[in-house]
Amino acid sequence: MGLRNTYNFIANHPLTKDHKLTAMLRWLKWQIGSRLVPGPVAVPFVNETRLLAKPGMTGATGNIYCGLYEFEDMGFVLHFLRPGDLFVDIGANIGSYTILASATGANIICFEPVPETFESLLDNINLNRLHDKVDARNQALGANEGMLEMIADQDTTNQAIHEGEEYLGKTVQVPVITLDLALQGKVPKLIKIDVEGFETEVLAGAKSVFSSPNLKAVIMELNGSGDRYGFDESDLHEYMLSIGFESCSYNPINRELKKINSEEITIGNTLFVRDMNSQKSVVEKADKYKIIDIWL
Questions:
Q1: In angstroms, rounded to a whole number, what is the distance separating the alpha carbons of residues 185 and 37?
Q2: Do residues 13 and 71 touch, judged by C-beta distance below 8 A?
Q3: What is the CA radius of gyration of the chain?
Q4: Per-residue model confidence as pLDDT tens digits over 133-157
Q5: Whether the predicted pLDDT of 65 surpasses 80
């Protein structure tokens, strides 16, 4: 993230737009301090949790500057989950959403296929002593079991190599399992999917999980990346509507959950909620969480 983009991100973020100077000083402190300390640095996250971060980790450093890098979606996770709920994090990367969800007392199953990134995920689980709450799996999810070649040097945008693609950077072969097989009958309350265009394949292997009425919400990244695999992401949106979900927006500040139409959906994460009116009371009654000295 360049300097101008970083400033705009901080200046317009809901948690820092009224505290720009403090946030920019936090950014400056990170830029200097992280370069003086070899290896990842443990930084405060939500409540008592911490994240190990180092320069170049886009999502992790965004949390440092503004508290919640993906404000609406991360806020929804905090307000929607309760102790004992099951959260599934698909494409966990270093574990920002996994550690975030742990602050609610939820149980978590997370999937991260790239071995090097998976080690960073385990480091964050170990740092927060979450061995009893988090089941971390070094696997990719897809339509069928097998093996998959993945890009392994692009941080949060590591993705599957599509047929015929020649990539000159680092790649790795990873095992693939279907979500239905991986969960063995367990149904989460909330799923987050961030697999850089491979969402269609993930859902193809998750028919049983997604058809269960016990799955109440899904956060899915739909940013057009599916085009590289020949997938039309509008089909995913239609599929979610066909099985009883509504596309929604969420404002963590006033805890407003509302339905949106297709014209209002923006590039990025899309929130799908089943039985939306019932879920409104869930987020409204949630505890508050401390994020960069702000209670949300």
A1: 45
A2: yes
A3: 18
A4: 999 999 999 999 999 887 777 666 6
A5: yes
Q: List Cβ neighbours of 142 (8 Å cut-off, separation of 6 or more).
A: 148, 176, 177, 178, 198, 201, 202, 204, 205
Is the pLDDT at 1 greater than 70? The verdict is no
Poorest-confidence range of 143-147, 253-257, 260-264?
A: 260-264
Could you count the other beta carbons within 10 Å of the beta carbon of residue 289? Answer: 21
Q: Give a three-class secondary structure readout of 70-94.
A: CHHHHHHHHHHCCCCCEEEEECCCC
Which backbone phi and psi does 103 adopt, to 5 degrees?
A: -65, -20
pTM assigned to the model: 0.93
Residues present in the chain in total: 296
147 within 8 A of 177, measured Cβ to Cβ: no
Tokens of 132: 């009893």
* 3-state secondary structure (DSSP) of residue 12: helix
Closest CA to 62 of 25, 10, 22: 10
Q: How far apart, in whole angstroms, are the C-alpha atoms of residue 163 and residue 170? A: 17
Q: What is d(CA 10, CA 7) in angstroms, rounded to the nearest whole number?
A: 5
For residue 283, how many C-alpha atoms fall within 13 Å in the half-sphere facing its CB?
Answer: 28
